[in-house]
Amino acid sequence: MSDQSSTNNNGPHEGKQHRTRRQWTDLVEELLNEARDRGDFEHLEGKGKPLALDQNPYAGDRALAYSLLKNNNFAPPEIERGKEIDSDIKRAEDGLATLRRRQHALDARIAHPDARRAYNVARDAAEVRYEALLREINSKILSLNIVAPSAMHRRRLDIEAKMREFREEFPRLEE
User: Fold this and answer.
1) Is residue 102 part of a domain?
2) pLDDT tens digits, the chain, 175 residues: what are they?
3) Could you tell me the residue range of the domain that residue 162 belongs to?
4) CA distance 131 to 2
5) Does 98 map to a domain?
6) If you write DSSP's letter for every residue of 100-123 in order, what string do you get?
């Protein structure tokens, strides 16, 4: 028999690698039947119990993958990205709170010029960090919206409006 034939007579588990889809299906079914006949499936953990698959209305064709991620203490990428966004928003708010405390601690009317200068330096650095963080958040929101189901989409931040609010709340002091 030549190597060019699609099957050989040495049994169903041997033969040329180029099989049709139907041949592969038949082979897999035969292997499963043989394993069942040998009792290979008799002592599997969880035998006779239903699979514990949590229903996720957003999972669609990814349900099995999400279930595996969850069972191994991982979250889907869009959930992880959402957590990153939330963490970054909190970090931006914490930066504003720090600057706000510094501003309230400084009585601008009687503060020494060095104190005003130090506040302005801190304020300017906070402004640069805040704007960069807002841009980073918007980038993450955009990437989230690309991969996540529409129910999980988030609105991008209006950076110009946020920066206007920053400048109104934290004006530079005269030195």
Assistant:
1) yes
2) 444 444 444 455 555 567 888 888 888 899 989 988 998 878 888 777 776 666 666 667 777 777 788 788 888 888 899 999 999 999 999 999 999 998 888 875 667 888 889 999 999 999 999 999 999 999 999 999 998 889 899 999 999 999 999 999 999 988 7
3) 77-169
4) 71
5) yes
6) HHHHHHS-TTT--HHHHHHHHHHH
Contact 154, 145 (CB under 8 A): yes
Question: How many domains does the chain divide into?
Answer: 1
pTM: 0.61
> Is residue 175 in a domain?
no
Neighbours of 134 (CB within 10 A): 21
Tell the residue number behind the tokens 């040329």, with chain if given.
16
- The answer to whether residue 56 sits within a structural domain is no
| Cα–Cα distance for residue pair 141/81, rounded to 1 Å | 8
Amino acid at 93: E
Amino acid at 112: H
Is 122 within 8 Å of 102 (Cβ atoms)? yes
Helix 77-105 crosses helix 159-169 at what angle (to 10 degrees)?
A: 20
* Gap between the Cα atoms of 116 and 102, Å rounded: 11
**Which pairs from 69-78 meet CB under 8 Å and 24+ separation?**
77/147, 78/144, 78/147, 78/148, 78/149, 78/152
